[in-house]
Amino acid sequence: MASFNIVVLPGDGIGPEVAAAGVQALKTIGEVFGHSFNFEEKRIGGIAIDTDNNPYPEDTDRACLAADAVLLGAVGGPKWDLGKMRPEQGLLAVRKSLGLFANLRPMDVKASQVHRSPLRAEVVQGADLLIVRELTGGLYFGKQTRTETTATDECVYTVAEVERVARVAFDAARKRRNKVTSVDKANVIETSRLWRETVIRLHKEEYSDVELEHALVDSMAMHLVTRPTTFDVIVTENMFGDILSDLASVLPGSIGLLGSASLGATGKGLYEPIHGSAPDIAGKDLANPVGTLKSVAMMLRFSLNLTQEADALDAAIDAVVESGFVTRDIGGTASGSAVSKAISDKIRETA
Ligand code: ATP
Ligand code: MG
């Protein structure tokens, strides 16, 4: 029997509702497989601005640094939109403090969901992608300057930064369909040339068994919607990854279905659904918990090394979604908490 310390950061809007679903799944996994999960709930985002005047309070940081893994709901909302302090700063702060440099977003289009997709069924059916986005470099963290008439954003990447995120992508590909598409803008941008050279060298030295292709970000945007089934792992820098992952997230038909993992050099990770705080549906028990539960399955897999448990959770999620017992965003009538409970029941039934 193993024991794990999980920090839960519910955050704002629907964050607490979906985080509760994640905790319920972990408790069920604990009961069924005989592990003990200790949960510590901490504040982040808008709610932390209200209580602590800080979107990422110090005691939250201490708890996250000591935890085996962190589960996050969502941050932000109209209440804080015009404030000086932004809830999203809490998110950047926790990523930075934990040294998380790779954001993984798996996305697959289930046959039963194909009709929800804005794209034609024959285009999206069977699409099964993993986007690996670099999280610590590029335009988001470069020097910025501003005068009345001119603004600049510096874009910086080092070989070491490219290498460590490319490694995550190649390692993931080996466990999937063994193909990596590296996305850049090497025909124009210098950091992209460094990116491409580094990926090519690393591939040659250590990963020549993996199929590697390169794509320019503009044509990649087109190909993601015209032939998404031809990709396996996609790796790219911070800004391109931000844009492409939102683009890809519409393929399955609801943002509520997708989870993410942010990983660093240690086993520790931050797990969260890719959607935001959805203030329009907060407090109504309408939020789809599936994206968060998919994130919890990744936590079991990547941070806690509980592969069998992760498989059981993934299978329970798929079974309940396929059965049509789903929330409104994907055409059902069930409440978020009922779906969460059904998935826990399914784990007990099948394990
Ligand atoms: P943010 O700036 O935090 O990313 P956003 O407005 O861009 O927020 P979301 O908060 O993700 O995006 O909401 C986008 C839309 O998707 C909203 O209409 C919201 O209700 C819906 N939505 C988001 N998450 C879920 C969910 N888990 N279940 C159902 N609907 C959701
Ligand atoms: Mg958004």
UniProtKB/TrEMBL annotation:
Q: Which InterPro entries match?
A: IsoCit/isopropylmalate_DH_CS, IsoPropMal-DH-like_dom, Isopropylmalate_DH
Q: Which Gene3D superfamilies match?
A: Isopropylmalate Dehydrogenase
Binding residues for NAD(+), per the UniProt record? G276, S277, A278, P279, D280, I281, A282, G283, K284, D285, L286, A287, N288
A Pfam cross-reference name: Iso_dh
Identify the residues that bind substrate.
R95, R105, R133, D218
Q: Which residues bind Mg(2+) per the record?
A: D218, D242, D246
Specify the Isopropylmalate dehydrogenase-like domain's residue ranges: 5-343
Return the GO cellular component terms, semicolon-separated.
Answer: cytosol
Site positions for Important for catalysis, renumbered to this chain?
Y140, K185
Name of the featured protein: 3-isopropylmalate dehydrogenase
Q: Which organism is it from?
A: Asticcacaulis biprosthecium C19
Designated gene of the protein = leuB
